[in-house]
Design goal:
single chain, 238 residues, alpha+beta, 8 strands, 27% helix, globular
């Protein structure tokens, strides 16, 4: 089934700083046999600047990077584009030129470019759910047209696709989208709880991933015997 993403030039994979969780980073590292430092980075912000992310991500506090007021967020690295020198793209984005212009791209620099994720099966949860959201009070999902990327003023390749983002146009199965949204909600809750725990210890940057790995490796456990033992039936007496 054809969908709106078939002619994608990956404007979103170029213009956004993609924040990820430790779950995302550890899964990519495991699936690709890559060290996490190869493809991830810590973005630093002042305490005031970090407030724009805090509705979704708990900021990371580190004791050894020179400024106790800085807040950090885990993100995928961005590297320079070979097709568009002077611009950046996601570390994992593949890009090449088309033989023929993409339809519906007149006046758009993406008409000659194809952009595809090279780790689609292992991509972060944020990528799996973009640009959809789960309603807080009802079991409904929504899709919305994202706001323009700020970098689009500097280079047209950062423009998002010109199609209108609708549920009918999205080629991904709606059930898959909803499942991803539900998993993402769980993973975000676990990650933010983990960061809050990490922040209590005054940890250094080198301790971050070992700390996270220990938590993720131990979050699925055998039920303790005190809980797993069935209750004993007691005969009621007057």
């Amino acid at each position: 089934m054809a969908g709106m993403c078939d002619t994608c030039h990956a404007g979103c994979c170029r213009g956004y700083n993609l924040l990820i969780t430790a779950f995302d980073a550890l899964r990519i590292s495991r699936d690709l046999s890559l060290p996490v430092g190869e493809f991830s980075t810590l973005l630093s912000f002042s305490a005031e600047q970090s407030k724009r992310f805090e509705n979704s991500f708990t900021p990371i506090k580190l004791s050894d990077l020179g400024c106790s007021e800085k807040r950090y967020f885990l993100a995928l690295r961005r590297i320079e584009s070979k097709q568009f020198p002077g611009t950046v793209k996601c570390y994992f984005l593949n890009e090449w030129l088309r033989e023929h212009d993409a339809p519906n791209r007149e006046g758009h620099s993406g008409k000659r470019v194809i952009g595809r994720c090279s780790i689609y099966g292992s991509r972060p949860m944020m990528c799996r759910t973009y640009p959809t959201s789960l309603h807080n009070e009802t079991p409904l999902g929504f899709i919305s047209t994202p706001r323009p990327i700020d970098l689009a003023d500097k280079h047209a390749i950062y423009q998002l696709c010109p199609e209108k983002w609708t549920a009918e146009a999205l080629s991904t199965d709606p059930t898959t989208v909803l499942h991803n949204l539900a998993v993402n909600r769980f993973e975000m809750d676990f990650y933010n709880r983990s960061i809050s725990e990490f922040n209590k210890g005054g940890h250094k940057v080198a301790e971050f991933f070992p700390f996270m790995a220990r938590l993720y490796e131990n979050r699925f456990r055998t039920v303790p015997s005190l809980i797993s033992t069935p209750p004993v039936a007691v005969e009621k007496t007057e």
